[in-house]
Amino acid sequence: MADPFLYGTGERSHYGCLGHEVQIEHINAYVCRPSFFTDKAVIVIHDIFGWLFPDIRYIVDLIAGHGYITVCPDFFKGTDPWKTTDHWADFADWMKDHDPMKVDKEADVVLKYLKEQCGAKKIGIVGFSWGGMAVHHLMLKNPQLTAGVSLYGIIRDSEERYNLLNPTFFIFGEKDHTISDNQITLLEEKLKQYCKVAYKIKVYPGQVHGFAQLKPEDMKPDDKPYIEEARKDMIDWLKMFI
User: Fold this and answer.
1) Largest CA distance in the chain
2) Fewer beta carbons within 10 Å, N or C terminal of the chain?
3) What angle do helix axes 54-64 and 224-241 make, rounded to 10 degrees?
4) Out of 37-41, 121-125, 155-159, which region has the weakest mean confidence (pLDDT)?
5) Alpha carbon 216 to chain centroid distance?
6) Are 63 and 19 in contact (CB under 8 A)?
7) What is the DSSP track for 107-176?
8) Alpha carbons 231 and 242: distance in angstroms, whole number
9) Considering Cα of 219, then 223, then 228, then 230, what sign does the dihedral take?
10) 34 CB contacts (<8 Å, ≥6 apart)?
11) Residue 204 near residue 175 (C-beta atoms within 8 A)
12) Strand 122-128 vs strand 69-73: parallel, antiparallel, or unpaired?
């Protein structure tokens, strides 16, 4: 299997996080809060590289800076994330033990924490790649999530994947070779047919899988406008509904 993360995951710059780590029942999590009180929150679901990956913590801090209590739980529950040194031939076996559609229990634990300990009344969710698939799943199953953003991750093997419960935004890169044009077209056709809530699909020119979570110092100049556009669109979607 080819490496789907063409944006150079092995060469990440150091990132000094703005938030802190907490324990939420059986889950470790990274939390960042805005400088003022808010009753709005966002759960961020990491990609295959896990909750400790610098890029995902940067995204948590970025979202918090827009006025949301933002939390990235370890949805792998202490098991090893995928590592850049792992062999892609083993990826299918790894995925069997890290199913993005088996995140309901952890999501409920984090929702309870945000409501009872953080005072959150409206909660959204954002996920990247593996996390994007988890967001797609949760937006079909959990009505407590007011809005969702799935970045380059979709459920592909279920006919019941179009009845979204609340507004959901799907972000894709034009050159993402893990998600074909046909899959995006099918998603759009089926959502138009079956979905009864607001949804949006947008493809960003020239962008590969994983493009939207890069830190500024790791961006290529030609990609920077599209990365910034995708992030602005993500935040605008959250602000529209949360």
Assistant:
1) 47
2) N
3) 50
4) 155-159
5) 18
6) no
7) HHHHHHHHHHTT--SEEEEEEETHHHHHHHHHHHH-TTEEEEEEES----S-TT-S--SS-EEEEEETT-
8) 16
9) negative
10) 64, 65, 66, 67, 68, 69
11) no
12) unpaired
Q: What is the CB neighbour count within 10 angstroms for residue 27?
A: 20
Look-up of token digits 């079956």: 194
198 three-class SS: coil
Q: Radius of gyration over alpha carbons of the chain, in Å?
A: 17
Which pLDDT tens digit goes with each residue over 53-80? 999 999 999 999 999 999 999 999 999 9
CA distance 132 to 240: 20
Cα–Cα distance list, 107 to 75, 114, 149, 237 (Å)? 9, 11, 15, 21
Q: What is the DSSP letter of 19?
A: S
Could you identify the residue written with the tokens 């959901």?
A: 168
Q: Distance (Å, rounded) from C-alpha 1 to C-alpha 161?
A: 26
